[in-house]
Fold this sequence. Notes:
In chain A, 68% of the residues lie in helices and 5% in strands. The first copy, chain A, has 117 residues and is mainly alpha-helical. Chain A has a two-stranded antiparallel sheet. In chain A, helix 1 crosses helix 5 and helix 3 (33-40) packs across helix 4. The first copy, chain A, starts with 5 loop residues before the first helix and ends with a helix. The A-B interface holds A 1-5, 7-9, 11-12, 14-18, 20-21, 23-24, 27, 42, 73, 75-76, 78-79, 81-82, 84-89, 91-92, 94-95 and B 1-5, 7-9, 11-12, 14-18, 20-21, 23-24, 27, 42, 73, 75-76, 78-79, 81-82, 84-89, 91-92, 94-95.
Amino acid sequence: MMPPDDLSSTFAALADPTRRAILARLAAGEASVSELARPFDMSLPAISKHLKVLERAGLIVRARAAQRRPCRLEAARLKDVADWIARYRRFWDASLDRLEAYLGELQGKDADHGRDN
Amino acid sequence: MMPPDDLSSTFAALADPTRRAILARLAAGEASVSELARPFDMSLPAISKHLKVLERAGLIVRARAAQRRPCRLEAARLKDVADWIARYRRFWDASLDRLEAYLGELQGKDADHGRDN
């Protein structure tokens, strides 16, 4: 068995639509817990729990000093995910290449068909 | 509460180093369960459990007909993750910009310092 790692905790934190929606909100600028809770129609403790998961995964940071302790998006872990996924890019690029070749083939056949008539 | 969705189950499937290692192995070509089990020093049932998670998340497909039922990487869901993460690219690009500006500043100071001596 492999030990848990940063990338695993990042993926686990992202495996929830509310947490991804919180990140999307924070992409528009920092926000306090109550500001985050409002659009989600969730209790403060429920939002706080999600924020703790995001904070432990390094996806957000919370200001320590300020009264409202605003949350801020932290990009480094998202970049780790992007770097990981980039290794597989050739697989979906290859699928697109095959689709394009197929569409090209269909268009070629259409052109031939047009010529026959 | 938001209902579970495809992207959440994809992220959950990726939140395990063994499952990510299986995908990395399948990136090199299709493999049977026993071929996958060998390098991981895991039992067939343990590997099968991971494969079921990957299959349910749409990250792999298993041949139905063949005796050895080889597993194959399926790129569409990985592309969904890449598309999701791409929305945040400007955040780490911005961090890199700030880092570059800071390094540039330091080099400027070094140059000034060199001039003073």
